[in-house]
């Protein structure tokens, strides 16, 4: 009986170790570093790339799955904040491992007016350190990046509260834009 219990415990520890190894972050995109390039199809079949947004601020958010409660809440919050973000010179892109067709259904159902990019192989999520590969399924971790007009990552959000995240991104973008206006200290008054 003791041998069986120890064997089960060892098996559980081995399984837990394998799961933790698969969940480890890879390919971290760091603040101040160049944003990894991408070229992915959106819900309308258009290919969007990082270069399309050169010279503009870009809010790039990764989310696990279309039409799940938290992902829907986050997407709708970005939809509602889109005009405010655009006034600040920023575009919004969502990325998950779902297909373009699934994105189209999700966007239509929730009146999402910004591009949702299909990273079906998870390569872009990996490049941004947002991939979660569980072996039997692949997801994008919920993370957001603000990319500056020069293509560098200006801010990174690893812990996202979907209830307040769009507002947090807007406040951070405001602070970044002020700092961007003054590469060094602002002039004395």
UniProtKB/TrEMBL annotation:
Would the keyword Oxidoreductase turn up in this protein's UniProt record? yes
PROSITE patterns for the chain: THIOREDOXIN_2
Give GO terms: molecular function aspect only. thioredoxin peroxidase activity
SUPFAM superfamilies given in the database record: Thioredoxin-like
Q: Which reaction does it catalyse?
A: a hydroperoxide + [thioredoxin]-dithiol = an alcohol + [thioredoxin]-disulfide + H2O
| Keyword Oxidoreductase attributed | yes
Every copy of the Thioredoxin domain together lies at: 29-178
Q: How does it assemble?
A: Monomer.
Known function: Thiol-specific peroxidase that catalyzes the reduction of hydrogen peroxide and organic hydroperoxides to water and alcohols, respectively. Plays a role in cell protection against oxidative stress by detoxifying peroxides and as sensor of hydrogen peroxide-mediated signaling events.
Protein name as it appears in the record: thioredoxin-dependent peroxiredoxin
